[in-house]
Design goal:
The chain is an alpha+beta fold. The chain contains 6 helices and 10 strands. About 25% of the residues lie in helices and about 25% in strands.
Length: about 180
């Protein structure tokens, strides 16, 4: 089932807004029209052994401290998952990472982590599995979407990186980030 059909089937409202392709938060700021919702960026991560996979959704300005996040989640050392893992688990490619890809995780192999500020927002913006459009999901529709996919959100204050964190932080640019 494609995303639009999935949303209709589960009575989830998510108005779609087309725009030029965006690969980074900076491009999104320039090319996506102002929309009523909190912007987000997504990190597709795996633990050191490759046994746990996490989709982490945070505000775009947040540079994530991967070591602190791994400790907070009891996952140990985290790193970015490969494009192959992204395709296998969420059926998407780099540049299109989105919480909406959880509909493709039928094996429930991916844990969903969302920053508390986004969870508490009235609405959130998300790519519809392509980086050439943005959908607006009201909080109630986000909850309905997650329930329909079988993913319970882990709502936490995702730890931000400091300048000293350096290479162990994620700033939203790279292969499995969007």
């Amino acid at each position: 089932m494609d995303l639009e059909s999935f949303l209709r089937h589960h009575r989830i409202s998510a108005p779609r807004h087309e725009h030029p392709a965006v690969m980074t938060c900076e491009e999104s700021d320039r090319l996506v029209p102002p929309l009523p919702g909190a912007k987000s960026k997504n990190l597709f991560l795996r633990d050191k052994k490759g046994l746990r996979h996490l989709l982490v959704t945070v505000p775009p300005a947040r540079a994530v401290d991967l070591n602190a996040l791994g400790a907070a989640l009891g996952a140990g050392r985290l790193g970015f998952a490969s494009p192959e893992r992204l395709q296998k688990h969420l059926a998407i490619t780099p540049g299109s990472v989105s919480l909406l890809a959880l509909m493709n995780d039928q094996a429930s192999a991916v844990e969903f982590v969302i920053d508390r500020t986004l969870w508490e927002a009235a609405a959130i913006l998300a790519h519809p599995l392509t980086n050439t459009a943005t959908m607006v999901l009201a909080h109630a529709d986000l909850e309905r979407f997650l329930a329909a996919t079988g993913h319970a959100p882990r709502v936490i204050d995702v730890p931000g990186a400091t300048a000293a964190a350096g290479a162990d932080s994620a700033d939203g640019s790279g292969s499995a980030r969007s």
